[in-house]
Amino acid sequence: MQGDVISGVMLPLILAFIMFSLGLGLTPADFRRILAQPRALLVGVLCHFVLLPLVCYLMLTTLGITGVFAVGFMILAACPTGSTSNLLTYLARGDVALALSFTAVASVMTIFTLPFVVTWALGHFLGAARAVNVPVGLMMGQVALVLGVPVSLGMWARHRWPARAQRFEPTATRVATVLFVLIVLLAVVKNWALLRDNFASLAPFALALNITMLCLGLGVARAVRLSRRQSVTLGIETAVQNAALALVIASSVLKDDAMAIPGALYGVLMYAGGLVFALAMRRFANTQPHAA
């Protein structure tokens, strides 16, 4: 019963607040701004929605990770970028406006893309019968409910009470961070035996995936001659995932706690890789003050 309360009530509510706090930092101008730099948007979409799931699948296949853990990593790869990517972008002296804009756009796109990736992963790694049992339309509605509605409410609150919303936003962000840590800890405690038995194989994979995508996002952006600030931002946006959503999809939608373990692990380890990356990029920017 306690597990049902955590999976069915606490996780969705915490995710909703996290997304509400993201909405408090957004305005319609953020969506319009990204249209003014369509090349950065297209590269971000390519890296996040195509390369990330593809690289994740290739790494899973190469290393022989299968079953529910493989599905868990594919769920994670199909999630939008995490809101904390904005903080890492700031630390890295990247393009914070691009980070905010892409995070918002990615959250909307995920409503349509995530159900199809998850359904494919279930069929591929667990058999067609498991995939058929997941109605794509229902999952789209659930993802829209926990992503789109809270973000929209946050944006509406900022529009309706701009001064109050801007004062409350830093507090909301801190509370959201604490709540995210809480749901990761809940997932770890709830699945401690599985995590303990599989940590040695899953943790290195999660860290390797994170580092690979940080470098790949940065490299692709630089290859198409985006600015240093935009490239750093897209590296972070490609690798920092909304692990909270991965936990909700695994535990609350698919009702399989084992699938939540990859999301919980990645949710912790991505900050280690992301912070090192951000500080390295910040130091590089300090040595090249006139870099684009």
From TrEMBL:
InterPro entries: BilAc:Na_symport/Acr3, Bilac:Na_transpt, Na+/solute_symporter_sf. The keyword Transmembrane applies. Pfam families: SBF. It is a multi-pass membrane protein. The chain crosses the membrane at residues 6-28, 40-60, 66-89, 96-122, 134-154, 175-193, 199-220, 232-254, 260-280. Keywords: Membrane, Transmembrane, Transmembrane helix. GO terms for cellular component: membrane. It comes from the Bacteria. It is found in: Membrane. This is Sodium/bile acid symporter family protein. It comes from Hydrogenophaga taeniospiralis CCUG 15921. The lineage of its organism: Bacteria, Pseudomonadati, Pseudomonadota, Betaproteobacteria, Burkholderiales.
